[in-house]
Amino acid sequence: MTTVIRPQDLIDSVADALQFISYYHPVDFIQAVHRAYEKEANPAAKDAMAQILINSRMCAEGHRPICQDTGIVSVFLKVGMNVQWEGDMSLEEMVNEGVRQAYNHPDNKLRASVLADPDGARKNTGDNTPAMITYKIVPGDKVDVHVVAKGGGSEAKTKFAMLNPSDNIVDWVLKMVPTMGAGWCPPGILGIGIGGTADKALAMAKESLLDPIDIHDLQEAGASNRAEELRLELFDKVNKLGIGAQGLGGLTTVLDIKVKDCPTHAANKPVAIIPNCAATRLAKFTLDGSGPSLQTPPSLDDWPEITWEVGDARRVNLDELTKEDIQEWKTGETVLLSGKMYTGRDAAHKRMVDMIAKGEKLPVDFTNKFIYYVGPVDPVREEVVGPAGPTTATRMDKFTRTMLEETGLIGMVGKAERGGAAIEAIKDNKAVYLMAVGGSAYLVSKAIKASKVAGFEDLGMEAIYEFDIKDMPVTVAVDSTGESAHQTGPQIWQAKIEEGVIEVK
């Protein structure tokens, strides 16, 4: 029997799914984070997960994005051989029209992050198209669809190797995970693809992330094949690395490990790792010819009631801050920022450094100021700014010394760790780097009371904004002596786990 499906049904279903996943975490993900939160022994990691959980509930209630990086879209379709499509639109055209409508929805406009001409002009396509589309022709008369919005920070941490057949995959994974840093916003999920060819291993790693979080069920049932043995072994050993939430050290780095494998050439053992972050976003639906398939909202009862206490946080007025004041700040302490702060990320930093080299005046004066690495979502309704969580700080490392030495800048706010060159520049200039929690963009945006473009308006979300903030929560990640919480935290917690002081369950 042939099933006839209208293009508009797929378009509407894709658009609905993308809006849905922008503000609803999968319930299994929330349950897994809550489980990790309850057992966490490191206060800094527990605090980070509290912010992630609170942010998630706020987004579910307010229908606003979980993360300012609303992702690059991947769509996986299984098209039944007995399906017939009306009209003459291609499958790619239908999917991309759904993406276009979702990202330009007036009630919840999502950030367009896709750039055309990736090694040239890098011009924003404006509507987050094209999606990355994979489809298979299978028996049947339905279309099964998975829709994913994958953040750039986690995608950037993808690892691939063509191992020798005798090489140990567990050893390779345990070597790779620490090199991924915290830019993928742990705790999250690692998808691992083994076998096939290079491209097949990467595809399997990505597709494995579509599966539900079920590692605890597997622990109870026990492994029945090699892939499941790897899942259990790696889940245990990766968490014993002590990397923890946001890379601050702790008991939970991964919420699950997924493994897919495929027969491969006798001379090869291709293996890929792709992480999912604290903004895990995915949904599925089926089209059967009866119309669009729309998502069903979960119950807010599925979200835990978490309160976040600032405790003995240091309150700071950025409008009166001097370089001498920040010398007192110590790695790991919580700071609440108030006052005026500028923003800037990759494109703005490159343009400013180029201007400095030419002796040109910058659009803003950074003397005794902080810069926040962020590309916010456009505001809707009464908002002054949309979700505005931090972006990965290491991308700004190569600009850091110039910015600190040539502009009067004394501090930076971003996501995850800094690299060696940036830490040396921070130490040499007695500056500081503060970490905001990746995956808590809507919560952070509530601390922003006013926003206006201060420079480079043509860069869109990468422009320089002036934020007026009130009690924005951050952690001192690199202090003025160059001590890094992302180096000391995991070392301390890995040692505690190895010594048996703390047990990872």
Note the topology.
Layout: E1 3-5, H1 7-23, H2 27-39, H3 43-62, E2 72-80, E3 83-85, H4 91-103, E4 115-116, E5 123-124, E6 132-138, E7 143-150, H5 152-155, E8 159-163, H6 169-179, E9 188-195, H7 198-208, H8 215-221, H9 226-239, E10 254-262, E11 269-276, E12 282-287, E13 314-317, H10 323-326, E14 334-343, H11 346-357, E15 370-372, H12 397-406, E16 411-414, H13 420-428, E17 432-435, H14 441-445, E18 448-455, E19 464-478, H15 485-498
Parallel strand pairs: 1-3, 2-6, 9-10, 13-14, 14-15, 15-16, 16-17
Antiparallel strand pairs: 2-7, 4-5, 7-12, 8-11, 9-11, 14-19, 17-19, 18-19
Helix pairs in contact: 1-4, 2-3, 6-9, 11-12, 12-13
Characterise the protein shown here.
The protein is of the alpha/beta class and 505 residues long. Among the domains are: 152-278, no CATH class; 314-489, fumarase, CATH 3.20.130.10. Helices cover 32% and strands 23% of the residues. It is built from 15 helices and 19 strands. The protein has helices at residues 7-23, 27-39, 43-62, 91-103, 152-155, 169-179, 198-208, 215-221, 226-239, 323-326, 346-357, 397-406, 420-428, 441-445, 485-498; strands at residues 3-5, 72-80, 83-85, 115-116, 123-124, 132-138, 143-150, 159-163, 188-195, 254-262, 269-276, 282-287, 314-317, 334-343, 370-372, 411-414, 432-435, 448-455, 464-478. A five-stranded mixed beta barrel has the order 14-15-16-17-19. Strands 6-2-7-12 form a four-stranded mixed β-sheet. It has a four-stranded mixed β-sheet with strand order 8-11-9-10. Helix 2 runs antiparallel to helix 3 (43-62), helix 6 (169-179) packs parallel to helix 9 and helix 11 (346-357) crosses helix 12 (397-406). The longest helix is centred in the first third of the chain and has 20 residues, at 43-62. The N and C termini lie far apart (51 Å). The mean pLDDT is 95.
